[in-house]
Amino acid sequence: MSAKISKFIDQAIWFSYLALAIVTPLIFSTKNSELFEVPKMIFVYLAAAIIFFLTLSKFILQGKITVPKNWAIVTFLIFIVIQVLSTLFSIDKFTSIFGYPSRLNGGLLSQFAYFAIFTGAFVNLNSEKSKKLLMAIVTSAFAVTLWGIPAHFGKDPSCLVLTGTLNSSCWQKEFDPTVRIFSTLGQPNWLASYLVLTLPIALAFSLISTQSKIKVSFLAITLVLFTGLIMTTSRAGFLGAAIALGSILLLLGFKAIKQNLRLLLLFLLGFILIAVIFGTNLFSRFSEALNKQPATSNQLPATSYQQPATTPTESGTIRIIVWQGALSVFKHWPVLGSGPETFAYSYYLFRPTAHNQTTEWGFFYNKAHNEFLNYLANLGILGTVSYLALIGISVFGLWRFSRKLNSDSILAKAAIGSIFGYQATIFFGFSVVTTQLLMFLIIASFLIPEIKPPPFYSSSDSEKLKVSSRKSSNNIGFFISLLTIVIFGLYAITLVGRIYLADLAFAHAERSSGEQALINYSNAVDIFPATNPFYLANYAYESALYAADTDDPEFTNTLTTQTQALAEKTLSASPNNLITTRKIANAYFLISDYDKEYKQKALGVGQKLTELAPTDPQSYLTFAKIQAGLGQDEEAIKTLETALSLKPDYQEAKELLDQLNSKAIQ
């Protein structure tokens, strides 16, 4: 009986890993609050919970716990511990634990999930399964690319799913897939990073295959993946691919290159043809970046009103400005950072004023657009060094594996190329659910088969170190242990389910209004397993809107009281959250006519906005609107002048200032 259960557990765990490799990149959902990242992350949560608790159950059935003997796991654990410490001192603990709402990836919960998946792979997989997992990763990448390529020609399958029409018109103009495809990843640079990770593995399978049909199949897959990469028009992706492929050639050496010369030349010819045919937009973007000088000044003169810029600011220019802000955050919190995933708030405390003169000045930046600076800002020097140590030790393990005299060594060299290329892409961007998951799966797939322990250890007895070995002395203890694990496992899965259902309720609330929206927001708040300041802030704002629209005095009083309670709870739960604070400021303003206390609250929260984002003109405009709406015209004029000193071409602020000045003259 025990053997049958163990076999079932092994099969369930293996299926979970296959699902992670194949399904995660393909998932997107219109039912969630965000199309791509949120449903992917929730799926990873679920799979990680299943793998973790089935593995614990397996330990109980075996009567022993084995911990894989590998330094990559040790450094990953150190990385997790530092993130826990950073969370304890975070400027926003909710975001540090659960992640930024539209991303989720990077929060402490996501890192726990990746650690469970990574460590579980060492316990549950073997060399044969690892190779199958890599094939599954390549197969899924092939499917993702085939899904995305038609969008380049105006026939996006995603639009067929979303609207029932096979075209590309379901996306906004700035996300036009005929210019830059993004398939099921949600953004061209994310798709490019994903393809940089998988393309070298596909190339390696073609090189090591002995059967002509399989060799040709992987050759075709590699060329298709490269086509998708070119169609993303991602400069970072193209650079990453060049580094990845260059690393593979360097690691292969002259002898191996000579043995595979015909095939490699065929790849090269295919790459060149694909780049020539589909690379026009990509090379135009490279030319654009080279011909434009990045902004270096942090200071702007307080000039008279200017016309807003219409030519889009080159993305490289914007990145440099954001990087300056990230370094300022790091200097303020050098040891543990401002907290995991809190860049959305810490950046605005130090946001360079030069950002106001870009065409993306009004966009909300929740990432540093450089993974390493993002870690520096969020986790400080300790978190960044531990991440680099994890990557370094993992690459060292891959290099050791690549020295073996078998065909799998080529796969390991390809994996090193994948990691190097991927790190290059996120130097100009950041990791997302799919890419971070696959990076850990690829690393684990090659470190698993090692039989001899690395030289860091004094012991050389076995691959795994027995931490505990205890045979069940009686059936009662055995079943109590197993039952406890099952209960905790079901509880963890229930928590994932609550996050998912709460997100569905929140998404439904965002698409509705009035009483129905209030019901949905209330459901989202109640279902989510923790106090969610984002849900509370939106609930408070919707209550305030409804209160301002209704003519029933008793109902209005109920709604304003509810708004006040929700607002206080939001500010208490997340006092440094710029996004929720802005919502609460507007909510108090909407109900300010009903009570003098609400007027003072509106002014107080409005003032706090300018403290949370002292160089952001939007904060001053919001505060000025509140001041003007409450009859404090002179104060509003001063606030607007500050906004215009930060951004002289701020048209909305200028128009409001003109109105107040005209009113003062009359």
From TrEMBL:
Keywords of the record: Membrane, TPR repeat, Transmembrane, Transmembrane helix
UniProt-listed InterPro entries: O-antigen_ligase-rel_domated, TPR-like_helical_dom_sf, TPR_rpt, WaaL-like
GO (cellular component) term, any one: membrane
Membrane topology of this protein: Multi-pass membrane protein
Domain O-antigen ligase-related: 221-388
Presence of the UniProt keyword Nucleus in the record: no
Transmembrane segments: 12-30, 42-61, 73-91, 106-126, 133-153, 190-209, 216-232, 238-257, 264-283, 375-399, 420-448, 476-501
Domain of life: Bacteria
Gene3D superfamilies assigned: Tetratricopeptide repeat domain
Subcellular location: Membrane
PROSITE patterns named in the record: TPR (PS50005)
TPR repeats by residue range: 617-650
Any Pfam family hit: Wzy_C
UniProt cross-references to PANTHER family, sorted A to Z: LIPOPOLYSACCHARIDE BIOSYNTHESIS PROTEIN PA4999-RELATED (PTHR37422:SF13), TEICHURONIC ACID BIOSYNTHESIS PROTEIN TUAE (PTHR37422)
The protein's name in its UniProt record: O-antigen ligase-related domain-containing protein
